[in-house]
Amino acid sequence: MNNIIKPEPTIIFIFGGSGDLTNRKLIPALYNLYLDNHMPEKFVIIGLGRTKFTDKQYRDKVFGGITDFSRQKGTKEDWANFSKSVRYQVSDVFDEKSYLKMGKEIEKIEKAWGEHPNVIFNLSIAPSLMDDVVTNLGKSGICTDPECTRLVIEKPFGHDLESARSLNNLLTTYFDESQIYRIDHYLGKDAVQNILVFRFANLLFEPIWNHNYIDHVQITVSESIGVGDRGGYYDKSGALRDMIQNHVLQLLCFVAMEPPGSFKADEIRNRKVDVLKAIRRISEDEVAEYAVRGQYGKGWSKGEAAKAYREEVTKNPKTDTETFAAVKFHIDNWRWTGVPFYVRSGKRMPKKTSIITIQFKNAPHQVFPEQTASTVRPNRITIAISPDTGIKMRFQAKRPGLDMMLNPVEMKFNYSETYEDAQPEAYETLLHDVMTADATLFMRSDEVEEAWDLLMPILNSWEKNPAYYFPNYDAGSEGPQTAARLIAKDGYHWFTYREL
Ligand code: BG6
């Protein structure tokens, strides 16, 4: 997130080099950085995997990803120049010879370049392989220079508090915390970073950003898609682990954190950990009061018949994994006492939206006669991460006319209307940050563990009490009735995208 520094010469090894994430996100992000002149002068990208590809076959494969998913396509010449630096190494994560080969490759490149490169290992692999790769990498001795070797760990980071702790312990057995970059791709989104700019680069908002003025906060991260062919992974995860533990809690932290003293990585991360620590812990017995879950049955999505989750996850037709979760949090500190934070996330909802709503209290005194102000609504700030990225502020205005009638109106900031430049993909920002050793937008070990700690009572309670009532919402709907009740009992309703 620094001002653009040209990274030093870099070698990037991608574990899971023939996987979906590499094809959709990683190679397109690196290619876009190249097109925008943000890659190092010298770089090599080495995909690692079991499939036997030649370099040429591998380049052809990842070119498919560029055609389908890259933000910019570049010219034939661009691709030809970039792809000269893309290679493939057949590799077995369990076999130490594969790691020795990587070490040899680094030596060879270092000799050819005549300088000591940064080496990045991107671990884009199934959670079940993580321990072996970390151990073998650690033992191989190729990461002993903490200044120049970095590990990028893709989510999920553990399956619960215990597994996250044990992965953190394993990582720090071999590596320094400063070498570890735990990815939450939401932090790479411009609109998410803009929450900090909005709050801390303006004078207007911070004085009222507290329980004296704010009534409640809502965060909705909804998707219209189902799980499709990701059922194998998703069924072991569910909405709470897949979205709330990471992306949604990160958004909450940005909204709720105290102003950092500076923009240094650890300053920001300390303030986020403070928020996670201050969120009230609940017991397993209280879960029903604070959290609800849902799973979609069949329904309609964008005018087309949509299958039920249980039909999609054919290997486990009675699964009670949740595809929707909503939770009410309280942050017990001076700033937020008494302000509930309602968060929800689900698949097969009507629209893909990631939206934060800050609902303010009513003005303390009604100056205008009641009949003229019957349409007055309290102020509201809406931060949209997607599909439109921007911020809206609702306030009151006088309607034109001789009479005094008040109406809510909006001031809007929209990225695409304001800026001509396209926003980079989250992975472009994040991979550039790894290359320039800026950890601000990555999760520190204590942050990940606090987030798990917070959710463990819910996960435990749901595991002990199977959801015999699933499916409980139709594909294409706003989620289960229980989610509406969770917020209605406090006198509110979920803001839908249309309303925002
Ligand atoms: C991923 C989840 O982390 O985020 C997916 O595993 C989800 O289930 C995705 O679809 C949503 O990301 P975005 O950037 O499309 O909102």
What does this structure look like?
The chain is α/β, with parallel strands linked by helices and 500 residues long. The protein has 2 domains: 10-154, NAD(P)-binding Rossmann-like Domain (Rossmann fold, 3-Layer(aba) Sandwich), CATH 3.40.50; 187-423 and 446-488, Dihydrodipicolinate Reductase, domain 2, CATH 3.30.360. The protein has helices spanning 20-35, 55-69, 76-83, 96-113, 127-140, 161-174, 190-200, 231-234, 239-256, 265-278, 287-290, 309-312, 415-418, 426-435, 445-464, 481-488, and strands spanning 10-15, 43-49, 86-90, 118-123, 149-153, 180-182, 214-222, 291-294, 296-297, 299-301, 304-306, 324-330, 340-346, 353-360, 380-386, 390-398, 406-414, 473-474. The chain has an 8-stranded mixed sheet with strand order 8-12-13-7-14-15-16-17, with helices on both faces. A hairpin with a 7-residue loop joins β16 and β17. α1 (20-35) packs across α14, α6 runs antiparallel to α15 (445-464) and α9 packs across α15 (445-464).
* Ligands present: 6-O-phosphono-beta-D-glucopyranose
Second rung of CATH, namely the architecture of the largest domain: 2-Layer Sandwich
Kindly report the name of the CATH homologous superfamily of the largest domain.
Dihydrodipicolinate Reductase, domain 2
- How many domains? The number is 2
Specify the number of helices: 16
Give me the count of strands: 18
Residue share in β-strands? 15-25%
Characterize the main sheet.
8 strands, mixed
Based on helices, strands and strand pairing, what is the structural class? alpha/beta
Round the mean pLDDT to the nearest integer and report it: 95
Kindly state the percentage of residues in helix.
Answer: 25-40%
Strand order across the biggest sheet?
8-12-13-7-14-15-16-17
Unreliably modeled segments = none
